[in-house]
Known about the structure:
The complex is a heterodimer.
Chain A: H1 5-28, H2 36-43, H3 47-66
Chain B: H1 7-29, H2 37-60, H3 67-71, H4 76-99, H5 109-116, H6 120-138
Helix pairs in contact in B: 1-6, 2-6
Amino acid sequence: MTISRSLTIAGWVVIGAAFAMACVASLVSRGRFPSAVALLRAAARNVAVRVILLAGWVWIGWHFFVRTSR
Amino acid sequence: MPNSLGPTALRRLQILAASSATLVYGWWFTDRQPFSANALIDFLISVGVLIAVAVARRQRSAPRTPDRPTREASRFRAAVVVWSAVGAVVVGWELIAFRSLPRSAHPTISSLIESSEQYHVARLGLFAVWIALGWTLAS
């Protein structure tokens, strides 16, 4: 599946807006609507989940600081 | 020397010192040549130190249940659904963009971030966010 350039960029704008709205919702809810970070922390209480999440975190760092094409 | 600092002030001082040291290291680390052995070694040092400190802190601290308020939040399930949906859409859109070329016309998250990585300050900001995420997960 391939899409046009304008659709790709519009998709990222919509996703960014949705992400921002969810962040704002968690901020103004005063804890009733947990943030993504709070959910990650809760999930990371399980050792297996924590190891998987940390492996993803290591990959992100490797990708952007060691293998970066800047 | 008398210890005139209270526990809260001491804790803030520790956080300030750790943050400053992290930023100084990050400024130096994010100036390393990509794909080099030095970049890889310094990256592994970052990962190792963060995980070692987080594990030591976890073992030293009293048992905590920080996730209890999260799980008992009135809109916990809605949050799980919303954040999972956002994550799934990001991954799906990333894959679609990744399969489309040229990259300049179909940017991925990586290409968007890497385009800003030409600035050292941006790399330091990215490093700080990455370290904060790692600390959140490991501690």
